[in-house]
Write a structure and sequence with these properties.
heterodimer; A: mainly alpha; 75% helix; B: 548 residues; mainly alpha; 26 helices
Chain lengths: 162, 548
């Protein structure tokens, strides 16, 4: 995925990010004590980030100018290549968003089952296999953490009501 | 001292629960090291949540088991299928796989196993001997020296980022910035919280590391649908009877290679960020150069197996030396190990061995003992490994993603930690895809707070900034940092340039200066040796200089 175009975009993004953070650093309270202020170290880090991002931008731009247009055109974001990663992001976000309602046990089983089915396929045999894997794996881990390690995992509204 | 060692030994070796946990840890490490796509760091991360409820010594013994097992696990897959289980066993494939193919699988596995064992043992001895001395040395460090040491650790990580030095620097700075978020350690002032109470507390160390490393790795593992659905290994492998006696005799007969490779491993482990992935190749290369039968290498040479396997296990001991003595992680795995120690309220540093001798020596003894477990459990791990490799990656990845969420939640019992893991997982995934090395970022996260704390202390004690260059240790580390920053240019430069000819001797002469400033007779002698060697090299190359 890396090429000069992507590096230019990332460098610009990093410069914007650093700008926003440097701006926010001015909101850090000064307690008036002697010694190093609370905003000093982050400012040093962020300004160094600005310098490095600028170097990356400059280098990528120079390379972009020197290589042929054909090479630069080869860059395209192929979303299909990231399909599985995007599925994982989506499923994990859904799992986290519903954790308070479904709890770790039910939410975890649904997350693993959903992810397995979306990544592995939808045939009857596979669905049964995925269901078994999700129930056994999450059930086992839930039991180990709840009863073995005495960790109070999120119960969720459903189990609490039940 | 002897009492402490005995007590520590008893707490590890005479407690059946601790021994059992160490055995389980070693087995987990062997499997994590063996499965391609998994790494030792992943093994440590996945075992970590189970140690939360354990006593510190039990938790540390378990982690040591995973750590040692992981370094040895890689040899199973690389020898039996030709696919290295971890980057630290890449060079083992060069001769291990051909030896197996030539009909000697039992000997090949035995050589790998016993080289790992002896390499680990040598590094364990050095660890016990050197770590307390280095910690003693560390007590001399003021905040200026510590800050410069961290700068050196970060620059060497960046210099090992290969062609992506700028990206490595950016990754390191992003790690340092991530460590700034939340209340600062000195004044307790909120930074970059954007009104969120959760962010005000800062990002917990382990969710960030698990997200950056494990979460992003799992996403990369399932990226290719066809590969994700196929069993982990297509090549069939069978359980093999290891030829222990013959292997031990062969390894001991090649003792020079064993010791040389072990020391390469230890030295590489001591350097921040240079882990087993580098040491195994270096040791293989040196073994090949030193061998009278270079043509045998690549065709199943005995020394081609001994060198990388001894080196990668010795790296573990080397990395532990830095971690235990100075609190500086040697690589990603030891960075995570520091996180594991912090869970048990242990902060490694120069005073750790003196303040917590029982725990410190417990770690040393666990490191020793884990090598015996590693040898004993290899046969069982081999059978388990063959079972696990029948499972497709998408099943493993999905289950482990859920497991990461449970493990991270168990850390502080707050859901926000899982969000942090997710957020950093997404960042880590895209950083991988965009060619940013993750190691500098991880070390930045680990060392960020320490760097800030030390620079604040230094400024608090004196506003004289020249102390950073006038204090001998600080100057030494800053020179080392400059040398490491220039190292990639040295590697890439043409052989006959002035820079390549003078890089090593001038570095030696510069490093001699702070050693002389230290004043101690031993250090002055070392400084004298460096100075003499540097001058000798310059003299030797003067003829080339004249031609230039």
């Amino acid at each position: 995925m890396t090429n000069n175009k992507s590096d230019i975009i990332i460098a610009i993004f990093l410069l914007c990010f650093s700008g926003v953070m440097i701006n926010d650093a001015s909101n850090i309270r000064d307690l008036g004590f002697e010694g190093m202020k609370a905003d000093a170290w982050p400012r040093v880090v962020l300004w160094l980030l600005v310098v490095m991002s600028s170097v990356m931008l400059g280098k990528s731009y120079l390379k972009f100018k020197t290589v042929s247009d054909k090479d630069n055109e080869n860059f395209s974001i192929n979303l299909a290549k990231f399909k599985n990663a995007l599925i994982c992001f989506g499923m994990f976000m859904l799992f986290l968003s519903t954790l308070d309602y479904l709890g770790m046990l039910i939410g975890g089983i649904l997350f693993v089952f959903g992810l397995l089915t979306l990544l592995g396929g939808f045939s009857h045999k596979l669905i049964v296999k995925h269901l078994l894997v999700s129930i056994l794996s999450i059930g086992f881990m839930w039991m180990v953490f709840t009863f073995g390690l005495r960790v109070i995992l999120p119960e969720g509204e459903i189990l609490r009501v039940w | 001292m002897f009492d402490v060692i005995l007590q520590a030994g008893a707490s590890v070796l005479l407690d059946p629960v601790t021994l059992g946990l160490m055995g389980i840890g070693t087995l987990a490490g062997l499997l994590a090291g063996a499965i391609p796509g998994f790494t030792i760091a992943m093994g440590v991360i996945l075992t970590l949540p189970f140690t939360f409820g354990m006593s510190p010594i039990q938790g540390l013994a378990t982690m040591m088991g995973v750590f040692v097992g992981g370094f040895s696990g890689g040899l199973m897959s690389c020898m039996l299928t030709g696919i290295p289980g971890t980057p630290s066993s890449v060079a083992t494939t060069f001769d291990g796989f051909p030896m197996v193919r030539s009909g000697k699988p039992g000997l090949a596995l035995g050589l790998g196993l016993w080289s790992s064992f002896f390499g680990g043992m040598i590094s364990a001895v050095i660890l016990v001997a050197l770590a307390p001395q280095l910690a003693f040395l560390g007590l001399e460090f003021g905040p200026w020296d510590y800050f410069s040491l961290i700068v050196f650790a970060l620059t060497i990580t960046v210099s090992l980022s290969g062609d992506n030095m700028i990206k490595g620097l950016i990754a390191g700075l992003l790690g340092l910035f991530a460590a700034c978020v939340g209340e600062d350690e000195i004044n307790g002032v909120a930074r970059f919280a954007f009104g969120s109470d959760h962010i005000r507390q800062g990002f917990a160390f382990l969710p960030v590391l698990i997200g950056l490393f494990a979460f992003s790795q799992l996403l990369s593992d399932v990226e290719d649908s066809a590969k994700a659905k196929a069993p982990l290994m297509k090549n069939s492998a069978e359980a093999i009877r290891v030829e222990h006696r013959k292997a031990i005799a062969t390894v001991l007969m090649n003792w020079i290679n064993l010791i040389r490779s072990s020391f390469i491993g230890i030295f590489t482990g001591i350097l921040p960020a240079a882990g087993g992935s580098i040491s195994n190749i270096l040791a293989y290369d040196q073994a090949k150069k030193a061998s009278n039968n270079r043509n045998e290498f690549g065709k199943g040479a005995v020394n081609g197996i001994i060198a990388p396997e001894a080196a990668n296990n010795a790296t573990a001991g080397g990395a532990l030396i830095m971690m235990m003595a100075l609190g500086i992680p040697g690589d990603i795995v030891t960075a995570i190990m520091i996180g594991a120690l912090m869970i048990h309220n242990i902060i490694p540093g120069p005073s750790f061995i003196q303040d917590e001798p029982l725990l410190a020596y417990g770690v040393f003894i666990a490191f020793f003992a884990a090598h015996f477990f590693m040898v004993g459990l290899q046969a069982f791990a081999l059978r388990l490994f063959l079972l696990v490799t029948r499972i497709p990656m998408y099943i493993l990845a999905s289950v482990i993603l859920a497991y990461c969420a449970i493990g991270v939640f168990a850390l502080h019992n707050i859901t926000f930690d899982i969000w942090v893991m997710f957020g950093f997982g997404v960042i880590g995934y895209f950083m991988r895809k965009l060619g940013f090395p993750l190691a500098p970022m991880i070390l930045g996260v680990v060392l960020g707070k320490l760097a800030e704390l030390n620079i604040a202390r230094a400024i608090g004690i004196s506003d004289d900034y020249s102390l950073f260059v006038t204090r001998p240790w600080s100057l030494f580390f800053l020179i080392m940092a400059i040398v490491s920053v220039l190292f990639p240019f040295y590697q890439n430069a043409k052989k006959d340039t002035l820079f390549t000819k003078m890089y090593v001797p001038i570095s030696m002469i510069l490093l001699a200066l702070p050693l002389f400033l230290m004043g101690s007779p031993v250090r002055m002698v070392v400084g004298g040796i460096l100075l003499s060697a540097g001058c000798y090299f310059i003299y030797k190359r003067s003829s080339i200089l004249k031609t230039i």
